[in-house]
Write a structure and sequence with these properties.
Elements: E1 2-8, E2 13-19, E3 24-28, H1 34-43, E4 47-52, H2 58-61, H3 64-71, E5 75-78, H4 88-91, H5 93-96, E6 109-111, E7 116-119, E8 122-128, E9 137-141, E10 146-150, E11 153-154, E12 157-158, H6 168-179, E13 187-190, E14 196-197, H7 198-204
Parallel strand pairs: 3-4, 4-5, 5-6, 10-13
Antiparallel strand pairs: 1-2, 2-3, 7-8, 8-9, 9-10, 11-12, 13-14
């Protein structure tokens, strides 16, 4: 198994292609530029089987319907943000996109609690990591020593909490109780910017000294 980072849209939101041994893949956070993402997937002859969303801010969901419709695959989201997909106020597009509202169809699967998710050949542990948004999820792949952390934890930083449903203390609790307990060599794949490791963030992240 392997992963590929594909920055998309004006905010360079990281979409990830989580690829298995048989070229099946899971699309994580298809935020924008659906045609570009579609081209990358086709050129590599990948076979998407699902879309996982770390959360439902506009820059992480902009190409959801395009990917879902072209590949005929289901979308997964946390229950606390199930109604954000088609609500421009909640997903932030009304505020930041200057009238270009982002509205997507409802998700196919609603995640209600932490669990282990099996999709095709992939086994994924779901961590609820609210704070940046109330339904933020992190997806942990134990066999790959990797966690897809969305906008919860970044290289040297943490997610913003000044958007609807954000909570700074809750974010710090999520990071410390759900992510920093992972092995130090766990790769952290954030929603923006470069990857890091749990060990690196324990040592160097100034926000985690609080």
């Amino acid at each position: 198994m392997k992963w590929q980072r594909v920055p998309l849209g004006p905010l360079e939101t990281n979409c990830y292609l989580f690829v298995g041994d048989q070229q099946e893949c899971i699309i994580i956070d298809p935020g924008d530029e659906g045609a570009k993402l579609h081209s990358i997937i086709n050129k590599q002859k990948l076979k998407p089987i699902a879309i996982l969303l770390t959360h439902a801010h506009f820059d992480h969901i902009g190409a959801v319907d395009q990917m879902r419709d072209v590949f005929h695959i289901p979308v997964y989201i946390h229950k606390k943000e199930a109604d954000w997909l088609n609500n421009p106020h909640l997903n932030g597009s009304q505020m930041f996109m200057m009238g270009n509202a982002v509205q997507q169809k409802p998700a196919d699967y609603i995640i209600h609690q932490e669990d282990t998710l099996t999709i095709g050949e992939f086994t994924i542990e779901l961590f609820e990591t609210p704070g940046h948004s109330p339904g933020s999820l992190s997806y942990y792949i134990k066999d790959l020593s990797t966690v897809f952390a969305g906008d919860t934890l970044f290289l040297g930083s943490i997610g913003r909490t000044d958007l609807p449903g954000g909570n700074h203390q809750q974010l710090l609790t999520s990071i410390k109780q759900k992510l920093l307990v992972l092995p130090d060599d766990t790769m952290v794949l954030p929603g923006h910017g470069a990857e890091t490791t749990i060990g690196n963030e324990k040592r160097m992240n100034p926000f985690l000294a609080e």
